[in-house]
Amino acid sequence: MLWPLPQSLVAGWAAVSGALAGPFEPAWQLLERFDVVYKRGRRYVHSPDPDYQLKAARLRSVWQEVLKDPIASVLLYQDELTYYRCPTVFCDYATAGSDAPRAVQGTGYNTSRRIAGCLNAYTGRLICWQRSAFDHQTFLRYLQAVEGRYPRAKRIYIALDNWPVHFQPDVLAALQSSKITLVFLPTYAPWLNPIEKVWRKLKQEILHLHRYSSRWKDLQERVEQWLIQYDRPAPDLLRYVGLLPD
Known about the structure:
It contains eight helices and five strands. By secondary structure, the protein is α/β, with parallel strands linked by helices. The protein has one domain: 2-Layer Sandwich (Nucleotidyltransferase, domain 5), CATH 3.30.420.10. Helix 4 packs parallel to helix 5. The two termini are 44 Å apart.
């Protein structure tokens, strides 16, 4: 496969090659001279939302309000995660030359489970539900349950993505009489939602290479135990997701 060289390298190649006296310089030496290396590509996402700056500013404004009175105003980062009976492949230590580590897939259907979670941006408390699916009615009941966990709050801001379930008219209408205000994040901007890093932690500690492919209920219980441990003020979790400086 051919890959395009940067224009600066092409120009430099011509200049250096023209100045060389003697045999043509090997390509690897020239690449090394210009600090060009062969490297793996990285996934890159750019938010196409035309209102990106406006929505990001709204989120910052909410956070400033929370800092003034974190009891009266609460900011929660919300998201959903799907996990599966079959483990995902990941890196781990294993004997050199062996075919380990293995992500044993087991037999039968690759059943899935959904988690909805809210991460408190100030305390690190994580409130989650596990269900087989989250339709708009289940999602609304979840939000109402989250609201009940903050009886002293006057305003509960929930920052979330643009999944269609979040926009359902029944959900929006029911929240009109609640303390909850939905703060929609820019489209395709997961870096603005720190709970994404909570899911990464869950995958690294439980879901990648798990040994529960033939024990689906045990996996669900193991995930529930992991989630419940953060249903408290959790500065360690805040620090992990980048909301609490070291």
